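Narrative progress, year one. The postdoctoral researcher (J.K.) led the effort to move from monomer predictions toward full complexes, under supervision of the PI. The following entry was the first complex the group processed end to end, covering 427 residues in total.
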Amino acid sequence: MPGTKEIRSKIASVKSTQKITKAMEMVAASKMRRAQERMRMARPYAAKARAIISHLNEANPDYRHPFLIEREPKSVGLVIISTDRGLCGALNTNVFKAALLLIREWQAKGASIGLCVIGGKGLAFFRRLGLPVLASITGLGDRPHVRDLIGTVKVMLDGYREGRLDRLYVAHAQFLNTMSQKPQIQQLLPIPALEAGGTELQEHWDYIYEPSAGDILDGLLMRYVESQVYQGAVENVGCEMAARMVAMKSASDNAGKLISELQLIYNKARQAAITKELAEIVGGAAAV
Amino acid sequence: MDTIHVDIVSAEGEIFSGPARMVFLPASQGEIGVTPRHAPLLTLLKPGEVRVQPPEGEEQFFFVGGGALEVQPKKVTVLADTAARAKDLDEAAALAARQRAEEALAGQYDKITQAEALAELARAAAQLKMIERLRKIKG
C-alpha cells in the first residue's frame, strides 16, 4: 500500500504535537488562576497608598513633591511590560503596537524617548528598533516580585528626579477576561490628580512628620509608583497565561481537525489499495 | 473599649486587618506605640516587628522589612515592604538594571552582593529578635 505509511507517520506526529499543546493549555489555565489571585492580592496596597497620598495632599497643600508637578514634556519615559516566552498569541504585539503609537505621537511633538523594558520579548523587539533602552529586566518568571523591579523602576524615577525625563508611562496588557486582553497605557509620573478621599477628617490639621515631609513623601511616592509597575507586571502574567491558554486551545483544536482529515485520507487510500488488489485478483481469475 | 483599626498590607498581599487596643511599630526614629485617637503621623519604618494588641486574645506579631506608616485618629495603615531596602541597595539594583540594558554585566557584582548581604543581615537580626520573643512567650 503505497502512501499509507507516510500518512500514518504524519498522523502520529500531529498527535504528539496535540499532546504537547493540550498539556501547555492545562498548565496555562492553572497558572492563570494563580496569577489572577495575585492580581487581587496586589490591589489593597495600591489603594491604601493612594489614600495616604490624597490625605497628604489635603493636609499639606503647600509642599509639592516633584512627582506631583506637571512639567513641559520634553522627554518621555515609557515602561513596557512584556512576556519572556512566546506562544501567547498577539499579546506582546498588541502592547508593542500601542506603545509605538504613543512613542510616535511624542516624537511628532518633538519629545525624546527613553524606554525601560521588562520581559525578554520586549527587549528583543525594542533593541531591534534602535530606541534608547535605559533599563531592563528579563526572566521575572510567573511570579514577579517587587524586589526584582525596584532597580529597573529606580532608573526611570532617577531620570525623572534629575530632569532627564518629564513624563513616565507604563504599558502592559490589561486583563479583561480569559478571552480578551487589551493593551493599556497609564501615566505614572507626574502622578495624575487623585480624587479626594477621607472626608471624615477635620479641616485644619496636618501630620506629624518623622523625620521630614520631603523624605516621607519621597519614599511613599516611590513605593506607589513601584506598586503600580508591580501590578502591571502581575496583570501581564495573568494575560500571558490567558492568551497562551486560548492559543494552545485553538492549536489543539486545529490538530484535532488535521488528524481527522488525515484519517479520512488514510482510510480512502487504504480502501483504494484493497479495491485495486481485488480487481487484480478478479481480473487474474477471469483470465485463467 | 476604644480601639483603632489596623491595616497591614504589602504590595504582594494583605497581611493583617482588624481592630486593636494598641500597636507597636519600628519607626525610622525608634519604636513607637500607637493608641486610639493618636495624632495624625506619617513616618517610614525600618525592618522589625509590628505588635498588634487586639481587643481580645493574645498579642500578634508581624515582621516587616521596612515600609511606610500612616496614623489617623481611628486608623493605622502600614505599607510593608516585601523586599529588603536600603539606599545603596536600591542604587545597586538600579545600576544592575542599567547595565543589563547596556549588556555589560561584568565586574560589578561586588558592590551589589555587599549591599545585599548588609540588608539581609539587618533583616535576619530583626527576625531573630522576634523569634526569641515568641519563644519566651510560648515557653
